[in-house]
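Re: [ENG-882] Designed sequences occasionally contain unexpected residues at chain ends

Forwarding the minimal case from QA. Structure tokens:
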């Protein structure tokens, strides 16, 4: 079945009847865009429209599906070849629809699963991180940072993943650290959060070398490090 040939045939027959696309569409109870899609070989008429379409264009089923006029007595009978071609078209169309629906369903399920996972994460939809050593303390973190794990053997180092770039994250980090008490201990600089009673040992952002994903490291200890 040659869909392009059929589309041109429909257009030719419509013009022979001095019908516009709008007029034919009104007679068939469809939109003029549907007629345009048929004639441009983008879609085929629904099988339920075959009879009224053939009546309006004064053609047979066989002529419609072969895309050409016939001049014999068999023109009013649907040929096996034309029928097989249309059935093949319908199967292919249904296959495409099923593949499309399967892809949409897979993407929807994947997105739903991702949202559920992120919703269960304690940081992604929040703006603070709750350190293990102080259950009541909250360390500010960039929005939509995803908590991964503690860092290696050090249970007081947290790792968070983010799509934000290090320069942007560092501005956020500096604005937080500037609100804390800066202290020197063993020739190193730390920041004491008196409100949460914990010391920020390290708060940095590094590019992982994996595209746009970056890692935030937060190392901390309970209380003032100078008192430990």
């Amino acid at each position: 079945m040659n869909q392009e040939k059929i589309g041109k045939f429909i257009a030719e027959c419509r013009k022979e009847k001095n019908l516009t696309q709008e007029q034919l569409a009104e007679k068939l109870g469809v939109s003029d865009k549907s007629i345009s899609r048929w004639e441009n070989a983008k879609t085929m008429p629904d099988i339920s429209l075959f009879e009224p379409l053939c009546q309006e264009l004064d053609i047979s089923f066989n002529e419609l599906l072969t895309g050409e006029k016939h001049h014999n007595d068999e023109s009013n009978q649907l040929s096996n070849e034309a029928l097989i071609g249309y059935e093949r078209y319908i199967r292919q169309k249904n296959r495409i629809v099923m593949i499309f629906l399967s892809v949409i369903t897979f993407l929807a399920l994947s997105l739903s699963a991702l949202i559920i996972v992120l919703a269960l994460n304690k940081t992604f939809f929040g703006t603070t991180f709750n350190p293990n050593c102080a259950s009541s303390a909250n360390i500010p973190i960039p929005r939509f940072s995803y908590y991964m794990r503690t860092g290696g053997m050090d249970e007081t180092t947290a790792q968070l993943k983010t799509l934000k770039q290090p320069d942007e994250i560092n501005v956020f980090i500096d604005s937080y650290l500037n609100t804390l008490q800066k202290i020197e201990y063993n020739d190193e600089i730390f920041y004491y959060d008196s409100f949460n009673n914990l010391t920020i040992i390290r708060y940095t952002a590094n590019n992982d070398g994996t595209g746009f994903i970056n890692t935030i490291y937060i190392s901390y200890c309970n209380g003032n490090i100078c008192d430990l």
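QA comment: On inspection the terminal residues look reasonable. Residues 4 and 41 are 5 Å apart (CA to CA). Proposing we downgrade this to a documentation issue.
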